[in-house]
């Protein structure tokens, strides 16, 4: 196989989060005695992912974003504070473990893949990228506060410890990446060519390490429970898509699409890491791991619905 063919194959694999999730899940469950050795290094894997993701951020995005400052402020408040508090109300209709998993998901910053997904859906990738940056930099403050506020009677969380941990996981790699890109622009471009495969490898290793630490079993009772969790999380992600459209009221069609994607496709790997390190509830972590399936699979469905809806609007017009 030629080097170009190998590179195309590698790019195709790294573009498929579904393949990554399935492979990591199978390996983590099948070889837990080996995967458990990766568990202590999940934080390092996440730091590497954040560092390479931050290298892709072009500082010129900050120049023209002042035109949408109102929408940005509203989006950050809604995504990081209001929406997680609304999700807290699900405790009246859902078991607490599922509710807590959803609170953690809702409190997460926008995922690093959101700008790409927004571009594919004909939204505003610049706006999505700026939201990714702002929510990621603010979440070390909001996540510990929200978890302590909503789960203080059920979960004991050290606010300072979680805050400092998130600073080292998110902000430190971000700052290092910006310093690197500023002082070493040529080397940064070279690193960018291999950043995606390395990030994907770290994502797979992170998931294997987390999954291996969870007591997954395949009895009939647990299988029914896991399928139930999977159905509920899928419904939750569908509702997040809808909620994202309401976030961008009085906005353009592209802004509606952008907000829906930014709210729905949060940084789920960070959620899994937080649950595994601080919540230490196997059921909550397992729910978040299973949530990766709708997280990875729903976007093509969403984009197809959007395309059909726009096609009908053109026909009607």
Note down, in words, how this protein is organized.
It is a single chain. The chain has 317 residues and is mostly helical. The protein has a single domain (34-316), classed as Na+/H+ antiporter like fold (Up-down Bundle), CATH 1.20.1530.20. Helices cover 79% and strands 0% of the residues. The chain is built from 15 helices and no strands. The protein has helices at 3-14, 17-30, 32-35, 42-55, 69-88, 96-107, 114-120, 125-151, 159-183, 185-212, 220-247, 253-264, 268-279, 282-290, 292-316. The longest helix is centred in the middle third of the chain and has 28 residues, at 185-212. The model has no long low-confidence stretch (mean pLDDT 82).
List keywords for this structure.
317 residues, Na+/H+ antiporter like fold, mainly alpha
**Share of residues in helices:** over 70%
Strand content: under 5%
Report the oligomer.
Answer: single chain
Termini distance?
51 Å
Order of helices and strands: HHHHHHHHHHHHHHH
Q: Could you tell me the mean pLDDT?
A: 82
Whole-number count of domains? 1
What's the β-strand tally? 0
CATH architecture: Up-down Bundle
Structural class based on helices, strands and sheet pairing: mainly alpha
Q: Ranges with pLDDT <50 over ≥5 residues?
A: none
CATH topology: Na+/H+ antiporter like fold
> Helix tally?
15
Q: What is the CATH C-level name?
A: Mainly Alpha
Give me the Rg, rounded: 19 Å
Biggest sheet descriptor: none
Outline, from the CA principal axes?
globular
């Amino acid at each position: 196989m030629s080097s170009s063919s190998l590179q195309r194959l590698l790019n195709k694999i790294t573009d498929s989060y579904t393949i990554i999730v399935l492979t990591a899940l199978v390996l983590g469950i099948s070889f837990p005695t080996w995967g458990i050795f990766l568990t202590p290094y999940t934080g390092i894997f996440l730091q590497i992912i954040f560092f390479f993701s931050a290298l892709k951020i072009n500082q010129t995005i900050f120049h023209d974003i002042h035109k949408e400052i109102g929408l940005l402020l509203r989006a950050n408040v809604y995504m990081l504070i209001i929406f997680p508090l609304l999700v807290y109300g699900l405790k009246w209709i859902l078991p607490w473990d599922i509710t807590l998993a959803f609170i953690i998901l809702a409190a997460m910053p926008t995922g690093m893949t959101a700008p790409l997904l927004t571009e594919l859906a004909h939204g505003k990738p610049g706006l999505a990228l700026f939201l990714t940056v702002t929510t990621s930099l603010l979440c070390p403050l909001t996540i510990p506060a929200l978890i302590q506020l909503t789960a203080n009677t059920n979960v004991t969380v050290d606010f300072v410890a979680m805050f400092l941990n998130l600073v080292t996981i998110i902000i430190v790699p971000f700052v290092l990446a910006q310093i690197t890109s500023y002082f070493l622009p040529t080397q940064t471009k070279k690193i960018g060519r291999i950043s995606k495969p390395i990030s994907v490898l770290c994502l797979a290793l992170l998931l294997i390490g987390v999954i291996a630490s969870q007591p997954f079993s395949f009895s009939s009772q647990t299988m029914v429970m896991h399928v139930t969790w999977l159905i509920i999380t899928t419904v939750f992600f569908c509702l997040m898509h809808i909620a994202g459209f309401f976030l961008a009221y009085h906005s353009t069609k592209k802004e509606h699409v952008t907000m829906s994607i930014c709210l729905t496709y949060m940084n789920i790997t960070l959620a899994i890491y937080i649950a595994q390190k601080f919540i230490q509830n196997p059921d909550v972590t397992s729910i978040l791991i299973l949530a990766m399936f709708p997280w990875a699979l729903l976007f093509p469905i969403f984009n197809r619905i959007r395309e059909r809806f726009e096609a009908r609007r053109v026909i009607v017009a």
